[in-house]
Write a structure and sequence with these properties.
Layout: E1 3-6, H1 28-31, E2 36-40, E3 48-53, E4 61-65, E5 70-73, E6 81-82, E7 91-96, E8 105-109, E9 124-127, E10 135-136, E11 145-150, E12 158-162, E13 174-178, E14 186-189, E15 195-203, E16 206-219, E17 224-226, E18 232-236, E19 244-245, E20 255-262, E21 270-276, E22 281-285, E23 293-296, H2 299-302, E24 311-313, E25 321-323, E26 329-331, E27 339-340, E28 348-353, E29 361-365, E30 368-372, E31 380-381, E32 390-395, E33 402-407, E34 412-416, E35 429-432, E36 436-441, E37 447-452, E38 457-462, E39 467-470, E40 490-492, E41 500-503, E42 507-510, E43 518-519, E44 537-538, E45 552-557, E46 565-569, E47 574-577, E48 585-586, E49 599-605, E50 613-618, E51 627-632, E52 640-641, E53 651-656, E54 664-668, E55 671-675, E56 683-685, E57 694-700, E58 705-710, E59 715-718, H3 722-725, H4 729-732, E60 736-738, E61 744-746, E62 770-776, E63 785-790, E64 796-800, E65 807-813, E66 841-849, E67 852-862, H5 870-910, H6 915-930, H7 948-961, H8 968-1005, H9 1016-1020
Parallel strand pairs: 17-44, 61-67
Antiparallel strand pairs: 1-67, 2-59, 3-4, 4-5, 5-6, 7-8, 8-9, 9-10, 11-12, 12-13, 13-14, 15-16, 16-17, 16-18, 18-19, 20-21, 21-22, 22-23, 24-25, 25-26, 26-27, 28-29, 29-30, 30-31, 32-33, 33-34, 34-35, 36-37, 37-38, 38-39, 40-41, 41-42, 42-43, 45-46, 46-47, 47-48, 49-50, 50-51, 51-52, 53-54, ...
Helix pairs in contact: 5-6, 5-7, 5-8, 6-8, 7-8
């Protein structure tokens, strides 16, 4: 793209030997108007952690989510909106101040259902304006906050239960209290570094009475231990000053996690589900915890306590009890017997009753929020919560391209990056079940690979034949049993499309899409037997396979050399082969500053140099929350850290730009970070981008779109990141810089969307307009600034509103010229808003900023997939122009009529003697005008019959909005309407000759002024 800059005045800098410092832009200054869009999906939603009611308004409900922040409903759960996007998106608990429920809300971050893939929190937050703004009020190192209890008689007295770190020891656990609204905190119950507060409840009738469930637990990458001698249930009756165990009737020995609930209508009734080796189940106390009795040990009550430990009692009936679990269990006889809740997504985490009607229930599951109107017998899902938790995403090269990915407990799917009317639930296609992870499209065939957790199944799905085959590698004679990670790695060769890789502890390769496999490596892990015990769970056995360890986790074949393959393992090895697997080198010892055995979460093989690769390490499973990102340029012989203080959260994924090797995209637990200088400086991207965990990043080569797979907010896309590729110091030193853009195509596609209701989530489509993208060194605040599109002769095509922010600015142009001037009437006509499209070609973009003018060019092309011939397109453009002129001819005619009428009526009011002269003018012109525009009725019910303006504008709009040549019927209609227009112009001329000229003479004779009529050129300006 050619650029021309005309600047009035130059400023000269004399260096005197001093080197100018580099300009560094951060955050919104760097990204300007680049903005993310969310495409969901929401049909499978995502895991809900906590549901909370407003205490007096049954329409307001809050949902705290596993990785998607806090959402609020103001219509009884029909729909929700996010209110916490700028902060940690992993939520432990939401609490509403009962004394100030419309304003004061507390949020404790960090998911408390401690599965292997949970995110982390970063403290406690408080809002005093209903969630519009938030302030952190401590507990930065808490990681997980389980409970918040507020004294209903004193809003400044608040108790917080901190579950604490999942993966290591921590002092920041236990129960805390503030008496000054969160300014200061006192730890009032603490056991040890391994034992946290999993539940804290306040007696609804006595704020001095508290119950605290303390849970000893620990997860590692290869094991989980739920319970120990320090797990216990405590009670305080003096506002937390003293605590006593209340275990009378509980099982002996080590205990695990408690589920705990107080009956709001009778606080002496307390329910507890106890995790233990023997006599586990639901216990009930009818004397406020002094004594307990085992009522029920049903599987639905005791299954996976670490994941399901929420029990809720009907606020009005102490005998109605609901317990979270695989299906959710409800009792209506005080816990003696239970039955499952109605059909919904499995894994029930929280339940809340409507404050006024207990038949109305809300249920939070791994698949979203459900509502019931009949006490849990039947449930329906909330359709607008895009909380899907992707582990991995990929894209193809279709137009529009598709996004593929696997979800936590919600299978594997693919859907389009755009769709008519927006991306709806019906646009997504299932290609796997269970926990879905990597989903890859064959580069040249309509084949999709997907997998189920731990490579239990690896599917090869033929889209055209609707045929599926399990192609997972199997044990080989003479080899050890295969160990596949819960998130087993797959990869497709960029050199040979049928080549397919998978990793166990070995690297497997298939040259025929998985039909046959061979192993091309030794065990590439540490093969540490201490980390291969398949028993897990502690008190409650949990043999899901999620803790399978010492496995390969990431595979990267060099796009430049098929013999260069990188492999990273979950126990910290970085292996590389340069000869297709004949020999391997473990390079991890060459990485300085990396703790031993840190999980290799992702390796990215460079597209620019075959010896270059990037490795991202995730230490959070060793209780290490720091980011580790390294780069090698010599096949791993040496590594350089790319981490700076700008990066927040442990890292999971990195993507190198395909065109600019210094442009890198990094996904962390708290969002997206981008560097344009090879890692010297990083900036968090926050433009419509929540602080959610980014698990995977892909870059679509054709569109330059950055596609993010988030673990809590679905798929997020930043359209066309190409401007970032062009930023360098030369650009940053300019006052104004236009970025190069590819030619923009005027898409001729059309279709019907809109199948979703107003309560369903619809993903955003990319903009279909041309974009003028420019950089401003400083925000424009004073003086005039304009932006115009001109043809090559300098004639203005259209004027646009410029963006004036510091950094990258984007102005959209819809390929349209100015709309025609429309005849004035009683109503407006929709056709008059239509502006004609420009023809394909090159156009000038002229930015005027104060006294300076900056110029560039953009190219517009016709749809490359068009079926319209040049002759047809020329005819469409010709007819559109003729109808445009007809619209303006009619507008000018009506303007002349109106101006003449206005003067005639003014004279008639002031001078009764002029009645003879004015009455004919008024009568004749009104009669003519009534045939040209609507002069009665309104714009809604259209009481009046359409006149020439309405018919002409509708025809003009139809022709101008189409790409095809006008139909014979349209051309015939055009001839009819133009005949009417010509007749109207002739009629006006006759009226002018016979009556208006008399009025003009009268006005001149009586010195009563004149009829002021602009020329047509003046009128149309």
């Amino acid at each position: 793209m050619k650029k021309k800059i005309i600047i009035a005045g130059l400023s000269v800098i004399c260096s005197l030997g001093i080197q100018a410092q580099d300009i560094v832009l951060k955050g919104k200054e760097l990204f300007g108007k680049l903005e993310a869009r969310h495409i969901g999906p929401a049909l499978m939603s995502g895991r809900i952690i906590d549901l909370e009611n407003h205490p007096t308004n049954d329409r307001i409900i809050y949902a705290g989510t596993a990785g998607g922040g806090v959402w609020k409903s103001s219509n009884g759960g029909a729909s929700f909106a996010p209110i916490f996007d700028d902060y940690a998106q992993s939520i432990g608990v939401v609490a509403v101040d009962p004394s100030d429920p419309d304003n004061t809300i507390w949020v404790g971050t960090g998911e408390i259902w401690t599965r292997n893939s949970v995110s982390v929190g970063d403290g406690l937050y408080k809002s005093t304006d209903g969630g519009a703004n938030w302030k952190k009020v401590g507990f930065e190192n808490s990681e997980r906050i389980s409970s918040i209890e507020i004294n209903p008689n004193n809003s400044k007295e608040v108790y917080v239960g901190v579950l604490g770190a999942l993966w290591g020891d921590s002092e920041e656990r236990g129960v805390y209290k503030t008496t000054d609204g969160g300014e200061t905190w006192e730890k009032i119950l603490y056991v040890d570094q391994k034992t946290g507060a999993s539940e804290l409840l306040m007696d609804p009738n006595d704020p001095n009475t508290l119950y605290a469930a303390m849970w000893e637990f620990r997860r590692t990458a290869w094991d989980f231990n739920s319970g120990g001698p320090n797990s216990a249930l405590y009670k305080s009756t003096d506002a937390g000053k003293t605590w006593n165990k209340i275990h009378n009737g509980f099982p002996k020995g080590d205990l695990g996690r408690f589920a705990l609930a107080i009956a709001p209508s009778n606080s002496k009734i307390v329910y507890a589900v106890v995790e233990s080796k023997e006599d586990k189940g639901l216990y009930k106390s009818e004397d406020a915890g002094a004594n307990w009795k085992l009522l029920n040990g049903d599987f639905g009550l005791v299954v996976r306590p670490f994941y399901f430990s929420r029990i809720v009692v009907d606020p009005k009936n102490p005998d109605i009890v609901v317990k979270g679990g695989l299906s959710g269990s409800i009792s209506r006889d005080g816990g003696k017997t239970f039955k499952n809740l109605g059909n919904m997504h499995s894994d029930i985490h929280d339940i809340t009753f409507d404050i006024n009607n207990s038949d109305r229930m809300y249920v939070g599951t791994d698949g979203g929020v459900y509502r019931s109107w009949d006490g849990g017998a039947t449930l329906d899902i909330v359709d607008n919560l895009p909380l899907s938790q992707f582990y991995h995403i990929s894209v193809d090269n279709e137009e529009p391209y598709n996004v593929y990915g696997g979800l936590q407990d919600n299978g594997s799917w693919y859907g389009p990056s755009s769709s008519p009317g927006g991306i709806e639930a019906r646009d997504w296609n299932r290609v796997g079940v269970g926990d879905g992870f990597r989903v890859l499209r064959h580069p040249t065939k309509k084949i999709i690979y997907s997998e189920m957790q731990g490579a239990q199944s690896v599917w090869r799905y033929d889209i055209e034949k609707n045929s599926t085959k399990d192609v997972k590698p199997l044990n080989v004679k003479g080899k050890a049993d295969l160990r596949f990670n819960w998130n087993a790695p797959m990869a497709i060769s960029t050199h040979k499309p049928d080549r397919f890789y998978m990793g166990s502890q070995f690297l497997h390769i298939s040259e025929d899409m998985g039909d046959n496999w061979k192993i091309i490596s030794p065990d590439l892990t540490t093969n540490d037997p201490a980390k291969q015990d398949k028993e897990s769970g502690g008190i409650s056995a949990d043999k899901s396979g999620a803790e399978t360890h010492t496995t390969i986790f990431t595979i990267a074949e060099s796009p430049l050399d098929e013999k260069v393959i990188w492999v990273g393992t979950d126990d910290g090895n970085v292996q590389v082969t340069q000869n297709g697997g004949t020999t391997w080198t473990n390079t991890v010892a060459n990485i300085q500053g990396l703790p031993k055995n840190t999980w290799v979460y992702h390796i990215e093989a460079s597209s620019h140099d075959k010896g270059t690769a990037y490795a991202v390490f995730d230490g959070h499973a060793q209780n290490d929350m720091k980011p580790y990102v390294y780069k090698t340029t010599d096949f791993g012989n040496s590594w350089t850290s790319l981490v700076t203080d700008d990066i927040v959260g442990f890292a999971r994924n990195i993507q190198e730009d395909y065109e600019n090797k210094d442009l890198l995209y990094l996904g962390t637990e708290f969002g997206l970070f981008i560097t344009i200088d090879g890692g010297k400086n990083w900036s968090r991207f926050t433009n419509n981008m929540p602080a959610t965990a980014v698990h995977f990043i892909d870059l679509q080569k054709k569109t330059n779109d950055l596609v993010l797979g988030t673990h809590g907010r679905g798929v997020i896309i930043i359209d066309d990141i190409s401007p970032l590729r062009q930023i360098n110091q030369d650009v940053l030193k300019k006052d104004v810089h236009f970025f190069n853009t590819k030619p923009f195509a005027m898409k001729e596609e059309g279709g019907f969307g809109g199948g979703s209701t107003e309560l369903q989530f619809v993903g955003e489509n990319p903009r279909s307009s041309a974009q003028i993208i420019y950089y401003l060194k400083k925000r424009h605040t004073f003086g005039k600034m304009t932006l115009a599109i001109q043809d090559q002769n300098g004639n203005e095509v259209v004027s646009l509103v410029p963006s004036k922010s510091k950094g990258i600015n984007i102005v959209n142009w819809d390929f349209r010229k100015k709309a025609p001037k429309v005849a004035a009437g009683k109503t407006f006509t929709f056709g008059g808003f239509t502006a004609p499209r420009v023809n394909a070609g090159t156009y000038k973009v002229v930015l005027t900023k104060g006294k300076n003018t900056y110029e560039t060019q953009i190219t517009i092309k016709n749809d490359p997939n068009s079926i319209i011939t040049s002759a047809e397109r020329d005819l469409q453009s010709k007819i559109t122009k003729e109808l445009f002129d007809d619209m303006e001819d009619l507008a000018y005619l009506v303007y002349r009529i109106d101006e003449t009428l206005k003067k005639a009526e003014e004279v008639a009011d002031k001078d009764p003697k002029a009645k003879k002269t004015t009455s004919a003018v008024i009568s004749e012109l009104n009669s003519l005008k009534e045939t040209l525009v609507v002069t009665t009725g309104d714009s809604y019910v259209a009481e009046a019959e359409p006149q020439l303006r309405e018919k002409l504008s509708n025809l003009y709009s139809d022709v101008a909005n189409n790409f095809e040549k006008p139909s014979y019927a349209q051309l015939e209609n055009k001839e009819v309407l133009e005949t009417r227009l010509l007749e109207a112009q002739t009629s006006y001329q006759k009226i002018e000759a016979k009556h208006i000229n008399k009025l003009k003479k009268y006005l001149e004779k009586t010195n009563a002024g004149s009829i002021e009529i602009q020329t047509k050129e003046e009128f149309l300006k």
